[in-house]
Structure formats: C-alpha cells, structure tokens
Amino acid sequence: MLRKLINKNFFRLNQRLSLKIFNRNLLNKHFLTALSKMVKTISMEDMRHLNLFNKVTRVETRFCFDYNNMLIFCVPHSMIHKAVGDEGKNIRRMKEILKKRIRIVSIPRGIRDASRFIESVVNPVTFKNLEVNGDEIIITASRQSKAALIGREKRRLKEMQEIVKGFFEKDLKII
Question: Do 139 and 149 meet the contact criterion of CB atoms below 8 Å apart?
C-alpha cells in the first residue's frame, strides 16, 4: 500500500515538473537534442550549483561542468542575455556566493557548433583549427596554446575530453 502511494505521488510530481518545464518554452529542439545526448549523472554539488543558477538568473538549465577551476553553465542561445543579467550582475552575484569563476556559454546545436562551443569554453586560449574525423575531434594549436589546452598532468585535456564526450559523443585529440 505504501509503495503504491509513493509511486502515485512520484508520478504526479514528475508530471507537474515536466509540464512546468515545457510551459516555460525553455526547451527548444536544440536544447532537447543536447539533453538527450549528454548522459551524465548529476552530483549533489552540481545539483546545488544548478539550483543556485536557477534562483539567481531565473533561467533553467541542466548543463553545468568544471573546466580549469571555473564553473561553466550551458544555456540556450536566446537566454544568454537573461542569464548574464544587466551589466553582469547575475554572474557577479554567483561569483560572490560560490567563490569561483563563472562562465555562461550557449548549448551547441550539434557537431557543426563544436568549434564555437569549444572556443568559448577554453577562451582566452585559442587554437588554429578544429577537424571532425569520424568519431574524433582533432584540435590543431600552436605550441604555447597546446600547452595551455593540455595543462599540468593533462588535467585540462581530461576535463575537455569528458565535456566533448558528453556533448558530441566523440573523442578529443590535440595536435
């Protein structure tokens, strides 16, 4: 009896949440495509960051990751201005609360946006070229940029490989 009651209430709650999300028109087809591709278990810390982001910016997202000791949130392109806030007040407020650097980037619409997405994540580091060959993405960079992209003990490379694998389901190599 108790299990039946729990399942019934869970179904109702899940139904309300899904209606709430769809009624806000935040999930366009690109967002849904990225959402279906990126299969990652959300940790409690990520959940905390996403809830804070939602409260501060009033923009819902499900994409949050760490890169180079920076917290990066991915939102639909049309919502970036709202997420940043007037004169960057939302970012400054979150930076004060979390005591971490914050960056907001747009959700990639597919593999054709891979270059723009990766460039916005690794900014200010630049690279010469990005190629997509089969199931891998190859970044060509100068010696100095290559060192910055790889990082000490390949830490940044591993972080970026995880991000690329999650969004594009491809392996990343830096040449």
Answer: yes
Residue type, 154: K
Using alpha carbons, select from 19, 22, 88, 98 the residue that is nearest to residue 64.
Answer: 98
pLDDT of residue 87: 92
DSSP letters for 21-71:
HHHTT---HHHHHHHHH---PPPHHHHHHHHHHHHHH----SEEEEETTEE
Contact 167, 37 (CB under 8 A): yes
Tokens 């960056």 sit on residue = 103
Find the DSSP H helices in the chain: 2-23, 29-37, 44-57, 80-84, 89-98, 114-122, 143-150, 155-168
* Positive/negative CA dihedral, 115, 54, 98, 82: positive
Sign of CA dihedral 55, 58, 61, 65: negative
Specify the length of the chain in residues. 175
Q: Mind listing the domains of the chain with CATH numbers?
A: 42-107 (3.30.300.20), 110-175 (3.30.300.20)
Rounded Cα distance, 168 and 111, in Å: 6
Q: For residues 162 and 168, what is the distance between their CA atoms, to the nearest angstrom?
A: 10
pTM: 0.73
Q: What per-residue confidence (pLDDT) applies to 19?
A: 40
